[in-house]
Amino acid sequence: MNSIKNHDREPSNDTSENNIFANLALASLFSLSLLSPLPAFADGQTEKFKLPPIDVKDLNRCTLASSSIGQANAARDKLYDLRQCNLSGSSAKGFDLSGVIMTKTDVSKVNFQEAQFSKAYLHESNFEQADFSNAIVDRASFAGSSLRGAVFQNAVLTGTSFAGADVENADFTEAAIGSFDLKNLCKNPTLKGENPITGADTYLSVGCGPNISNK
């Protein structure tokens, strides 16, 4: 009887507490929906993406800036759009550039050492003599870009596509490349020459062996 009486005395308090927790939960979910970052647009094996128009009114758009989120899924709180920007000779050493979008972008001779490019869309851009030493270029796509003379020494290139890219004179010495990606890269007809900076033989630096067809 005492347990029944005690239960009868306190229903209003339990109901009140439940309402408070329910309201807090709803508020938290609403806040998360407002603050949740934008998804990344790219990964190395997806061929086509429907990109939004370039925001030509954003005068500060063409700036190399490291992400403050640093998530493995390359999510950002704002679309990182560097399309048609001229950033030649700049430095982004150690920057997290995950989720970045580049088309018709000039990033020739840029220092990308130790940078992160998870799910980056890097199409039809100029990466000539860019330095990606010790960088993490994960699930990115360089489709149609020029990487002539670029350096990828000790870089991680997992799930990254070089389809249609010009990699002549690039250096891939000690780069970590998956077997599937390696096979595709070794079939690239531009995989030849010698890097003008390191002197490395491009084809040999990738590790293309006799068992991998280059036809």
TrEMBL record:
UniProt keyword terms in alphabetical order: Membrane, Repeat, Transmembrane, Transmembrane helix
UniProt cross-references to InterPro entries, sorted A to Z: 5peptide_repeat (IPR001646)
Transmembrane parts of this sequence: 20-42
Entry-linked PANTHER family: THYLAKOID LUMENAL 17.4 KDA PROTEIN, CHLOROPLASTIC
Protein name in the entry: Pentapeptide repeat-containing protein
Organism encoding this protein: Fragilariopsis cylindrus CCMP1102
